[in-house]
Design a protein that fits this description.
Layout lengths: L1 H7 L7 H14 L22 H4 L5 H4 L7 E2 L5 E2 L7 E4 L2 E7 L4 E5 L4 E5 L2 E11 L5 E2 L2 E2 L2 E8 L5 E10 L4 H4 L2 H12 L6 E7 L10 E8 L7 E8 L3 E3 L1 H8 L22 E4 L4
Parallel strand pairs: 1-8, 2-16, 11-14, 11-15
Antiparallel strand pairs: 3-6, 4-5, 4-12, 5-7, 6-7, 7-10, 8-9, 10-11, 13-14, 13-16
């Protein structure tokens, strides 16, 4: 299966050190503030997605890359791969910090609190963050929100598990942090756009429900610097989120970041693979 993934993504000609540095910069950007930093970008106006590639030399891949995310997943064009295995996600209780990253709201963890196993390789669970509306689409449907669970291997490779939400009942996991989201919004109103609020021990078991169907492809980080060769696993089961929860996730963000979904990117010949537990 590792050889299969290598065929899906182009061979990298740079040295291992260069690759590690690229991923280190990209992963560091997950925690960068969008306001007043060298990584300044937005989702509207002159600093919006159409111009990301020209805002900073480090962002050039956002416009020149051929393995960009997000994408529209067309169900009847996804290729079922019998060699794919169920996603093994072992998440445990960990001390979490609710963070206003400026361009999204996320949870960071102070210690190792989980692992994702992809084709026998371990990826440590590092953080999660939300986008609203969703970045990925399925058959052209854009959902109310999307959660990215970000994992990092010892070599610096990134693997993301994506969960899509449609409007409906409140999500049980988000319900655990709703009050803290309100505190984060109050801090933003007070001018503290880099607020961090300790959550304390947080049980992540609600994030690891059985995965009977998912879509896999090789893509990129969906915000600058748009680093490529990220392993995406978009879950087929759509969860529900209440309108109030969506509003709570948006409330701490500035006007140009409340709609924080990057436009769809071209597949450029990439295949989207399907794992389906119930297929014959």
């Amino acid at each position: 299966m590792r050889a299969h993934l290598q065929n899906m993504a182009p061979q990298l000609s740079s040295s291992f050190i260069s690759i590690a540095l690229l991923f280190a910069v990209a992963f560091a950007n997950f925690g960068q503030q969008a306001h007043g930093s060298v990584f300044e970008f937005s989702y509207a106006g002159l600093h919006g997605p159409a111009n990301w590639g020209s805002l900073n030399p480090k962002f050039s891949t956002c416009s020149s890359g051929k393995l960009q995310s997000p994408i529209n997943i067309i169900k009847n064009e996804a290729v079922e791969n019998k060699s794919l295995t169920p996603l093994t996600r072992v998440y445990k209780r960990g001390n979490a910090i609710l963070v206003n990253n400026g361009f999204n709201i996320g949870l960071h963890y102070e210690e190792n609190c989980g692992v994702l196993i992809v084709d026998g390789k371990n990826y440590t669970f590092k953080q999660m963050h939300w986008h609203s509306p969703s970045e990925h689409q399925i058959d052209g449907v854009q959902y109310a929100a999307e959660l990215h669970l970000v994992h990092l291997s010892d070599s610096g490779a990134i693997a993301v598990v994506s969960m899509l939400y449609e409007l409906g009942d409140a999500d049980p996991f988000i319900s655990k942090i709703t009050n803290k989201l309100g505190d984060l919004a109050k801090d933003a109103c007070a001018g503290n756009e880099e607020a961090q609020i300790p959550i304390g021990p947080l049980d992540n078991k609600l994030l690891r429900k059985n995965t009977r169907k998912y879509y896999r492809y090789i893509g990129s980080i969906t915000s600058p610097p748009c680093t490529e060769n990220v392993i995406w696993n978009v879950l087929g089961k759509v969860r529900t989120i209440s309108k109030e929860q969506v509003e709570a996730l948006k409330a701490p963000l500035g006007a140009d970041y409340k709609q924080n979904s990057r436009p769809l990117q071209s597949l450029n010949g990439r295949k989207v693979e399907l794992y389906n537990e119930f297929s014959d």
